[in-house]
Amino acid sequence: MLAAVLASLDDDKAEDIVSIDLQGKTPMADHLVVASGRSQRHVSAVADHLVRKLKEAGFGRADVEGLNQADWVLIDAGDVVVHIFRPEVREFYKLEKMWAADIPPDAQHH
To answer: Do the beta carbons of residue 73 and residue 43 sit within 8 Å?
Structure first.
């Protein structure tokens, strides 16, 4: 599922994609993926496409929150939780820093 998420984000030109391995850190999910969109429209499109692609790939229907405002969209696909932000909102919350003080350089995908 992680590969499908990363491919979808990359295809839709999401920016600053970071994948954090949560296995053994929380029962919430195995992976946390954080990405940015350039605008509310871009965030919305990236999120909408990702949810559709996950469903088409047989991963079921993901829970989605925040799609109407599209400042911060949360997609809970079970094993993988995805946060897609507008850049200013991402900078404000610094979510990935909360989960991984030291994100290894190989965790960043562009």
So the answer is: yes
Phi, psi of 86 (to 5 degrees): -75, 145
pTM, two decimal places: 0.89
Beta strand pairing status for 31-36 and 80-85?
Answer: parallel
Q: What is the pLDDT of residues 2-48, one digit of tens each?
A: 999 999 999 999 999 999 999 888 888 999 999 999 999 999 999 99
Residue 16 parent element (H or E): strand 15-21
- Degrees (nearest 5) of the Cα angle 106, 108, 110? 120
What separation in angstroms does the CA of 15 have from each of 26, 27, 63?
A: 26, 27, 22
